[in-house]
Amino acid sequence: MTLPPYDLDVRPILREGGEPFSVIMGAVEALAPGQSLRLLATFKPIPLFHVMGARGFDASAREIGNGDWEVIFTPAGLEAEETPKPSEPAKSGDDWPEPELEVDARELDPPEPMTRTLAAVESLPVGRTMSALLPREPLFLFEELKRRGHEWRGAFEPAGHYRIVIRAAEAQKGTS
Amino acid sequence: MGTALSRWTMAYFTAALVFLMAAQTMMAMGYGYPTVAVEAPETLVLVHTVTIGWLSLLMCGALLQFVPVLVAKPLQSEKLVLPALLCLLSGLVCLLAGFLHLAGAIETDLPLLPAAATLLPAGFLLVVIVVARTLWNVRPARLPLPARFVAIGLACLAVTFAIGALFALVLSGLLPLDLRTEGLSIHIAAGVGGWLTFTAIGVSYRLLPMFMLAPDEERAASRAVWRCGILALLCFAAAPLERLAGGFGIFGPAAAVLALAALYFYGLDLVFLYRNRKRRKLELNMKAAIGAFVAFFACGLLLPVAALTGTLEMYSGAVFYLAAFGWLTGLGLSQLYKIVPFLTWLECFGAVMGRKPTPRVQDLVAERRARLWFALYFTGVAIGTGALACAVPGLFRLASAMTLVAIGAIIVELVVSRRLLNLPERDSLPEGASRPRLFLPSAR
User: Fold this and answer.
1) Distances (CA, A) of A87 to A96, A123, A125, A126, B191
2) Contact with chain B for residue A120, Cβ under 8 A
3) pLDDT digits (tens, 9 = 90+) for B148-164
C-alpha cells in the first residue's frame, strides 16, 4: 500500500490507568481503505487481535523494549468485513453463531462496561455475536442496543453477574 | 436516550438548587430561626423552602431517574412528570407566599394556603403515581430491598403532604382543629425520617455499590435496617394516639430505640461497603458522602443524649439543621456531583459510544477544585450546628454565608460539567454526539 500506516500510541493512556479501547476503535474508523494501523502499547494486546481479526485485519506484534509492544494491523482483504462466514449449524434450535469475543467488564466503573460492550459490538461483522460479562443488568445498554438495532439475549449468572450475548445488526452510521 | 434517561430529572434538580440557594441566602441574612422563634411564619418559609423546594424536588428528580434502575423496569406514566413539577412549583410558591402573608410581609386576599393545600398534594400525588406504578410493574417478583425502602418513603410522603394540607387549611381558618402538638410531630417525622431519610438510605444501597464497585447483594444488616426502620416509624405514628388514649407512653421511647438500632445496622452496612469496594481510589462524590454519613450518625448520637438530659427543646434546632444540611443536603450535593456529569456524559456521547473515541466521565469534572468547595461546605455545616447548639445567631449567619458560597461554587461546577467546559475537545465533539441543554430535555 502506498499509504503510510496510521500511528497510534496508547502507552500514555495505559500508564494513567485509562482505557484506550474506544480511542483505538476511533482510529480504526478513521483508517483509509487499505491503510494499516501501527499501535504502541505497554503490553501485548491479545484481546484486540480477535476484535481486529473480526474486522478483517491481520496482526503482527513485536516487543520494542521496556515491556512495550508494537503491533501492526494490516487489512487482510477488502471483502473480509462484509461477508460473514456461514453460521455454524444450529445447536438445539439456536440459530445464533457462537460468540467470537467476550468482554469481561465485571470490575469496571459505569459507564465503562457499556462503552466496551458497544465498542466490541460495533467491531463485529453483521450477524456475528459477542458476549459480555457485566456487573448488573445493563438498562442503559439495552436502550442503546435497541436504538442501534442490535439483538441481544441476557440473563443473570449464578455468580451474580449478568451475561449478555449480542448479535450485530447492519451498521447504522451516526445518530439514529 | 429514550426511556433510560428521565427527561425532566435535570429540571427537578435545577429547581431544587434554586430553592437551596434561596434558603441559604435567607439563613445568611438572618431570616427565620434562630433570629425568630421556631414556630414563627418566617421559620415556616425557611423550613419549607429547604424541605419541599430543595430536598423533596431533589429526591423526586432522583427517584424518577433511579427507580427504573432499582427495579430494571421502564418508568410508567412518564407524561405525568412535567405536570407534577409544575404543580409542585406553583404549590410551593403559594405556600411560601401564604406564610409571608401570615408574617405580615405581604397584603393579599388570595386564598394562598388553600391553593397550596391543593397544588402541593396534587404534585406529590402525581410523582407517587409514577414511581409507585413503576415499582408495581415488578410483580409477581419481589421488590429488591432498595426499592422497598423507596416504597415506604412514598407512603410516608403521602402522610406528610396529607397532614401538611390539613395544616394549611387550619392556618387559613378553614378547619377548626388544633393539630399542632400531635399532628406536627407526625408531619416532621414522616417527612424527614420517613420520606427523605428512608428513601435516601434505599437509594444509597444501590448507588454506593455502583459507584464504588462494592458487593451488591442483599445483606442481613440491610434487612435489619429495613425492619427496625419500619417498626420505628410505626411506633412513632402510634405514640400520639397512645398519648390521646392516656397510655404509658411506651411508643415514643420504643421508636427512638428502634431508630437507633436501624442507624447502627446502617453504619455496619456503610463500613462493609466502603471496606469491600473494588475501586481503591475513591472519587470525590464518595469522599464527600462520608461527611454526610458522619453528620447522620452525629444526629443519631445527639438526639438521645438531648432527650435523656431533658434538653431536647434547646437542641432540636441544631439537630434538625444537622440532619437537613449535614446528612440530607450533604448526601444530595455529593451525589449530584457524580450523577449530573454521568447523565450529561450519557446524553452527550451515548449515540457514538463504541464508534468514536469518547472522553471519560471524569474528564467532565475538576475534582481538585470541587474538593475545596465540599470541604468549605461541611466546615460551614459543622460551625453552623455548633452555633445553633450554643445559641450564637451571629456565628450561625457567618456559617450560613460559608455554606452559601460553597453551594454556589458547586452549582457552578455542575454547570461547567453540563456545558462540557472541562473537556479540552469541547469544541470538536465527535460527529453524532449531542451537546446537552442545561436543564431542558434534549431533542434526541
Assistant:
1) 7, 18, 12, 11, 60
2) yes
3) 999 999 999 999 999 99
CA dist B124 and B168 (Å) reads 16
Q: Are residues A60 and A10 in the same domain?
A: yes
Q: How many residue pairs bridge chain A and chain B with CB atoms within 8 Å of each other?
A: 87
Tell me which chain A residue has its CA closest to the CA of residue B363.
Answer: A18
B158-215 pLDDT, tens digit each: 999 999 999 999 988 888 877 767 788 899 999 999 999 999 999 999 999 988 888 8
Backbone angles phi, psi at A149, to 5 degrees: 85, 10
pLDDT, chain B, mean: 92
The CATH number covering residue A140 comes to 3.30.110.40
Bigger pLDDT: A79 vs A45: A45
Chain B CB within 8 Å of residue A139 CB? yes
Q: What is the ipTM metric for this complex?
A: 0.73
DSSP state of A7: E
Range of the domain at A138: 102-167
For residue A49, pLDDT beyond 50: yes
Is A174 domain-assigned?
Answer: no
Element (DSSP H or E) covering residue B292 = helix B284-308
C-alpha A34/C-alpha A40 separation (Å) is: 20
Residues sharing a CB contact under 8 Å with residue B202, sequence separation 6 or more, in sequence order: B70, B145, B146, B147, B148, B149, B150, B153
Using the Cβ of A119 and the Cβ atoms of chain B, whether some distance falls under 8 Å is answered with yes
For residues B249-274, give the mean pLDDT.
Answer: 94
B346, B355, B360: residue with CB nearest A18: B360
pLDDT digits (tens, 9 = 90+) for A127-145: 899 999 998 888 888 888 9
CA B297 – CA B106 distance, rounded (Å)? 40
Residues in chain B with CB shorter than 8 Å from the CB of A19 are 360
Per the structure, how many domains does chain A have? 2
CA B122 – CA B88 distance, rounded (Å): 8
Among B137, B352, B353, B362, the residue to mutate for chain A (most A Cβ within 10 A): B353
Distance CA B204, CA B213 (A): 13
